[in-house]
Amino acid sequence: MSSSSSSFPPLSPSSPADRSALRASCGDCFALCCTAFGFQRSSDFPIDKAAGTPCRNLADDFSCTIHQALRPRGFTGCTTFDCFGAGQYVSQVLFDGTSWVDEPDSKPEMFRAFAVARQLHEMLWYLAEAVSRSTVLGSAEAPTVLGRRIQQVLDGELADVIAVDVESLRFDVRSVLIDVSAEARGGYPAAGEAVGDLHPSADLAGRDLRSRVLVGADLRGAVLIAADLRGGDLSGVDLLGADLRDARLGGADLSNALFLTQPQVNAAQGDASTVLPDDLDRPSHWSLR
What's the whole-model pTM score? Predict the structure, then answer.
């Protein structure tokens, strides 16, 4: 099983900064996120589910029987997840459109491949933005080359995907993103400086940040759970890996925030006046006012 025999559209985008191929297409996936991964009863899930087993809400056609009521039923974790297009890639490219139901013996490799591919696709999401953010001559070369390395793995055989050293790639990607972040934030007055408690990995849970000047801040890996960012300008703010669960984003401008992802947005609380980057969707659970 390999990508060479599939008629599925190629993953490679039309340009290094194009992320259209990294968006989930659930109709082309065999509900891998509902089967491959496990979860424990928590505020995000009302039940326990072992990895490699179908969710009890999974229908025979791989759809969710409670899709429109996931949050009221306690499955908040499902609404914040995003596979960055890895689900359809594994289902239609690596496994040629043959599901784990039709070939039960394929489950271990399919689920393992999905876990790896999801991480690789997420890296490509970040690297595509890094290319578009690079403004200094030649600075786009590093994220472009690294993206091609990852793409070569994804264009290979199933065994290539499963065997890839994800941690080594993640280290290289992180280094590139830090460099690009410093470059992109260079035009902001406070860029490169730790302003009080505004710094990478800062614990800002529950904090009221409405009066703070945030533009250009490096909040990579920061804990922003339930933080109040309403009305804030987050231009040039590095949010790589920041925890935005229940962060209050009403009226905030995140259109030029760095390294923001759909799962982060899905986990936050926004409204109709929250401004998002063009390639991120407004979650259906957000307030319409």
Answer: 0.91
